[in-house]
Amino acid sequence: MKPTKNQLFKRQITLSEIGEVGQKKLQNASVLVVGCGGLGSAIAVYLASSGIGKIHLVDFDTVDISNLHRQVFYSLSDIGKPKAAVLASFIKERAPFTEVIFYNKAVTKNTVFDLISKVDVVVDGTDSLPTKFLLNDFCVLKNKPLVYGSLYKFVGYVASFNIPQQENFSTNLRDAFPIMTTDIPNCEVAGTLNAIVGIIATFQINEVLKIITEIGNPLQNELLIYNSLNNSQLKIKLTSNFTKEKIQKIFDSESYFDENCKVQNANWLISSAALKEKLSDENLEIIAVLPNLKLPFQVHQTIPIQEFEAHKMTVDFKKTYVIVCQKGLNSYKATSILKSNFPDLKVFSLAGGIENYQ
Fold it and tell me: Of 40, 7, 34, 39, which Cα lies nearest the Cα of 23?
């Protein structure tokens, strides 16, 4: 079946606030969705279904079984496949009037220019604080609207940053969070409920549609905080403190480096098979950096990654240390911390984490 635009978007065009004019604005718009996880996957599918003309997906990760409870546009058969590629294929099947392209790498300071410069709106669907600030800062410098979303357990945050106003632009992420805190646990560590993920994603979708069609009032100069446990909403008013000049100075000096997005050093990894051979070694010490892991072996101690401070640890250079977590990201981060403090220490991260332990 080859539907027409009027058939596919009939219910939306019927809205007097949208109509043919609004639908044409959506068709002419290009949106960059960074992160194809719980937020980004839903955002991309809904935007395409609304008739956005061009969507650019960016994500370096692959589909994992632990993703499926909240990333509902992936299936069991997609496990191990690149998220951006799978999501692009899904969208192409249901949105014939949307051009979809994808990029299977992390956003970095070196790649952000090419990704953002040619789009109309940027949507933050990541769980990486360095990436969130990189997107924000570059959007400020290039006068691009940024629709922000983030999650912590049962609470979600939404805002539309850097929206054009009469004489300048609305507030940005640094006006809400001046300091880039690095010790906030992600969903792997803190956990998350799928309902709050879907709620925040739809809030973000709504913001993008309002910005493009120029209807309603975007969440500009304010931060919406939604608590799903008691269905409460709080709006915090924001004031502009970080000018474009300030952000330029930050951008010039900041690396925006994210440990979780880099290629892991193979020399710091240990496979499941190699670890099994070492389990009986009395000089082996296993450290979990995620509490309440379901483990097929005993660990000697548990140190949550947000409390992992190498300078407070007493290490034995006769021992071999293996760090474990669920997916192998936080364990690699802990391994890097130990290596930078004790370069000669024999320490390894379990490749792929416990969920890939076979």
Answer: 7
Topology (CATH level 3) of domain 5-261: Rossmann fold (3.40.50)
Instruction: Specify the domain boundaries for CATH 3.40.50.720 within the chain.
Output: 5-261
Read off the pLDDT of residues 198-213 as tens digits, 9 standing for 90 and up: 999 999 999 999 999 9
Report the C-alpha gap between 283 and 254 in whole angstroms: 41
CA distances from 4 to 1, 7, 23, 174, 346 (A): 10, 5, 13, 43, 63
Dihedral class, residue 240 (left if φ above 0, else alpha if ψ from -120 to 50, else beta): beta
- pLDDT of 181: 67
Domain with CATH 3.40.250.10 in the chain: 266-356
- Which superfamily, per CATH, for 266-356? Rhodanese-like domain (3.40.250.10)
State the Cα–Cα distance between residues 61 and 351, nearest whole angstrom. 15
3-state SS of 52-90 is CCEEEEECCCECCHHHCCCCCCCCHHHCCCEHHHHHHHH
Widest Cα–Cα separation across the chain: 74
* pTM exceeding 0.70: yes
Q: What's the first-to-final CA gap in the chain, in angstroms?
A: 45
How many Cβ atoms are within 10 Å of 294's Cβ, its own excluded?
7
